[in-house]
Amino acid sequence: MEGHKGSVRITITILCFIVLMHLSDLGKGVEAMTAGECKQERKVLVNACKSLLARRGPSSYCCQRLRAAHVECVCPVITPKLAALIDVNYAVRVIQSCGRQVPRHFKCGSITTP
Question: Where is the Bifunctional inhibitor/plant lipid transfer protein/seed storage helical domain (predicted)?
Fold first, then answer.
């Protein structure tokens, strides 16, 4: 059971990073992704950014994948239960270290940035 919780926490944390990375890109005419494409994108990101759970800095590949991710694949899955597991302040710091700005007070699913 503990392994399952760890896996869920990894996935949730990575999804939060995806969301926050693309907040500044909203409204820029991104093509719609299929459900299958979104699922694959999330899987790749989770694998690329696992080191973030140990509070190690993101790798260049993790930053690359975060910058290429699509927010429309993530916001719908951020429920109150998932949002309770995410350290939004840490996510914002990591995203900024990847060279991206994060808008203040943006709501995505059940997350609002500081």
Answer: 31-108
Q: b/e string for 10-42 if b means 16 or more Cβ within 10 A?
A: bbbbbbbbbbbbbbeeeeeeeeeeeeeebeebb
**b/e sequence 65-100, b meaning 16+ C-beta within 10 Å:** bbeebbbebbbeebeeebbeebebeebbebbeebeb
DSSP SS3 for 85:
coil
Boundaries of domain holding 106: 2-112
How far is 52 from 58, CA to CA, in rounded Å?
6
Report whether pLDDT(113) > 70: yes
7-38 residue pLDDT tens: 666 666 666 666 665 554 544 444 678 999 98
Contact (Cβ atoms closer than 8 angstroms) between residue 25 and residue 71: yes
Query: Residue 4 pLDDT more than 80?
Result: no
Give the CA distances from residue 51 to residues 54, 68, 72, in Å, rounded to whole numbers and listed in that order: 6, 18, 24
